[in-house]
Design brief:
about 25% strand, alpha/beta, Rossmann fold, about 40% helix, 7 strands, 8 helices
């Protein structure tokens, strides 16, 4: 599905979120772990937005690797990385977040933006993310959520269920892809329920940071020191 919409993916992200997706990604830099020469792993990297944004925003990231299963999305990522002049710091490769192709304790920080709800087994995926972090390393997850305010939520769901799928379908030529979005968001655990899943996977000091009235949330968790 993501390969089918790769050509219009970035355009639609900007349009349908009114540019908020870029603001949300930039917020991730606030929650990077302390230290220099950080090694970053970006899961479900898509067109590379998170890795590029973080490397543009922080000189503390020495290297970044993005993995994704969608080859056409990765081709877009490679083009963007080159245009940003980040080929020396960012690499992308085919990979599955459910079976991360790296050794234990390989990274200081791992990210996944709008991808964790697509995992076939979220608890197992979180344990895999925990595995590849060094002790003291940090996991940052950016994902859609539902606003707690009833009025805001009602307006949001109207847009999410009806307007967004219609516009996304027309521009991308793939209506099913944008109907999939709201269905997965509305059924996915968020807030404290998702924090509980992170804690069960082993993460400590789990926190949630609501963005734009709770439309999206950044979750952070740390791997315990051994």
């Amino acid at each position: 599905m993501f390969d089918r919409i790769a050509g219009r993916y970035d355009l639609l992200n900007r349009m349908l979120s009114f540019g908020r997706d870029q603001v949300w990604r930039k917020r991730l830099v606030r929650y990077l772990p302390p230290g220099e020469k950080l090694r970053l792993l970006d899961l479900a990297t898509g067109t590379g937005d998170v890795a590029i944004t973080l490397c543009d925003s922080s000189d503390r990231i020495e290297s970044a690797v993005g993995i994704d299963m969608a080859e056409k999305m990765l081709n877009k990522a490679k083009e963007k990385i080159a245009s940003h002049g980040r080929g020396d710091r960012i690499q992308v490769r085919t990979g599955n977040a459910m079976a991360i192709p790296f050794d234990d304790c390989s990274f200081d920080v791992s990210t996944i933006a709008f991808g964790v709800r697509n995992l076939s087994d979220v608890p197992a995926g979180l344990r895999e993310m925990y595995r590849v972090l060094r002790p003291g390393g940090r996991m940052l997850i950016l994902e859609f959520s539902l606003p707690p305010d009833r009025v805001v939520r009602a307006g949001y769901l109207l847009y999410f269920r009806h307007i967004l799928p219609a516009i996304g379908g027309i521009i991308s030529g793939d209506r099913q892809a944008y109907r999939y979005l709201n269905r997965t968001v509305e059924t996915f655990p968020y807030g404290q329920e998702f924090c509980d899943l992170m804690e069960k996977a082993g993460f400590k000091d789990v926190k949630k940071h609501r963005l734009t009235f709770g439309i999206a949330t950044i979750y952070e968790g740390t791997k315990a020191q051994s």
